[in-house]
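To: structure subgroup
Subject: Chain for Friday's discussion

All,

I'm putting the inputs and outputs inline so they're searchable in the archive.
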Amino acid sequence: MIKNNSGSLAETLASQLTRGFLTIILILFLINRQIYAQNLSNSSQHSSLKLWYNKPSGKVWENALPIGNGRLGAMVYGNVETETIQMNEHTLWSGGPNRNDNPSALDSLEAIRKLFFEGKQKRMRSTA
């Protein structure tokens, strides 16, 4: 068996491997702690973005939360026992799916731009 001043070669290797393993564990712990601290600070920065209510909205439309994009939307009431989501879609009001674009708009685009840059908004609207 090969020996050095402090013991066997196997003991030295085991000691170095243990130190290396403990160093890796310590580094991982510190990285994890840093990530946790960053997440904690991010959540405290965004805590003002939370909506929190002390009572259900009931059936009052003004108490519901609106969500949507202008074409498709909903009002979420947020009641505890029975959730109500009131859906809305723009074709319900316009009479059904239809073509809302103007196929001849491209022909008028140059004239509309000219009127816009000349500051003639009323005439521009009537041209459009």
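Points worth raising on Friday:
The first strand starts at residue 3 and ends at 4.
The mean pLDDT is 77.

D.
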